[in-house]
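**Reference record**
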Amino acid sequence: MPHQPIFEQVEGPVLVSACLLGIRCRYDGRSRTRRWILKLPHIIPVPVCPEQLGGLPTPRPAAHLVGGDGRAVARGRATVSTASGEDVTRCFLSGAGYACKIARILGVRYAILKEGSPSCGTHRVWVRNESQEGLGVTAAMLLRLGICLMNEDGLMI
């Protein structure tokens, strides 16, 4: 479990990458369950998978950012594509938009997101075939809303 004091600050409805809650929604059809998230005393976990919200199936081809991180995608300066070259940018932007809408409706102030994901990465994302510092598409858009972001290890932005 990550450093507890960080998570003691978190309360109310919290967006959580659905894969961290045991939902098999990752690109490979798996989850990356972190059961301790469900044990946080003052939160209501709200599972979101932006890629599914954007219309992508599970399983699906792995995707990576091209030309920049999620901030650049949100500004129209970068894209998201699969290894075969299929452009899935529209799906990623749509899913991020729905995640933001859910956050606004529920008054979310915090999000716990899956590190490394092209949607949810908070510190590292895949740009082409290389892990680089940056934000995923959904993380970038949630940050613009003023939502406090952290990864599954408690590392905050």
Summary: The longest helix spans residues 89-106.
